[in-house]
Amino acid sequence: MWGITGSGDLLSEVVDELQKLSATGKVEITTCLSKAANMVVSWYKLTEKIKEISKRVLIEYDANTPFIAGPLQVGKYHSLLVAPATANTVAKIVHGIADTLITNAVAQAQKGRVPVIILPVDQKPGEIVTRLPTGEESTLIMRDIDVENFQRLKAMKGITVLETPKDIGRFYSPDEGG
Hints:
The longest helix has 13 residues, at 11-23. The protein has a single domain (2-171), classed as 3-Layer(aba) Sandwich (Rossmann fold). The protein is α/β, with parallel strands linked by helices. The protein contains 8 helices and 8 strands. The strands form 2 sheets. It has a 6-stranded parallel sheet. The chain has a two-stranded antiparallel sheet with strand order 6-7. The radius of gyration is 15 Å and the shape is globular.
């Protein structure tokens, strides 16, 4: 299960990595878009690419619809990848808030001992350069609280935190049983 939140930062790079993984034919990807992700994916013109990568694409209606928590808990999915994860999603996860489809999926996957892999966008203090849908670059300043939540996320049991989109391919290498 691949959960996408409403971040444009790293989105294209994550999609590229999942496209490579999907092309191996050794994995099936079910994609779940948060409400915000549905807008951002469209804005970045990645809707069709995501449909090609995915066996199914589900769009959040509320925290339990579509119903993915049950299938995650009972092991229908190898793991839950949340990439990219917004600072808001990370903050909710580290504080135990499960009021969106993605944060609820993380909580339920953890309860069912299903591996949770998260790629947060806000990781290090200072500035980052991101690419807008137009191709232009934009500089963002990381907030201290978001960096602190990234550190808290890394300390959580049952969650693997990735630092770059390239880590997705290494984590899910079909040749290594990932």
